[in-house]
Amino acid sequence: MSDLSSHDTPRPVSLFTVFAIFFLFAAFLLVLKYVYLPHRTGTFSGDGIRTAQQREQILVDLRKKEDELATKYGWVDQKSGVVRLPIERAVELTVQQYGTKK
Asked: What is the DSSP letter of 50?
């Protein structure tokens, strides 16, 4: 009977086993973090991610430039004689050109 009772008592867990389990769990969490979780980016200083105010200012500047290009005369290529016309004038010339042809 004494042989049977000696098998029923649990052995103490070694300190090495506790550290090994802790290390494996920490390694699993690191792999999880770097592989599965999205990476956060910091402030971007180059082209790309911008704040809402920066995007709004860029849009205002772009619309101003497009408005100037669409409403004013200018050279596209002065050597070859290509000019930029305001849209209204280009429409008038196109109507005149195609209105006279039959």
From this structure: -
Distance of alpha carbon 43 from the chain centroid? 12
In degrees rounded to 5, what are phi and psi of residue 46? -95, -160
Please list the alpha-helical segments (H only) found in 1-102. Answer: 2-8, 15-36, 52-71, 87-100
For 29-57, the pLDDT digits (tens) are: 999 888 887 777 666 556 666 788 888 99
Instruction: State the residue for tokens 């004038």.
Output: 89
Q: 51 and 60 in contact (C-beta within 8 Å)?
A: no
pTM above 0.70, yes or no: no
**Alpha-carbon gap, residue 3 to 20, rounded angstroms:** 32
E strand map for 38-99: 74-77, 82-84
Cα separation of 84 and 73, whole Å? Answer: 5
Supply 66's token pair. Answer: 């497009």
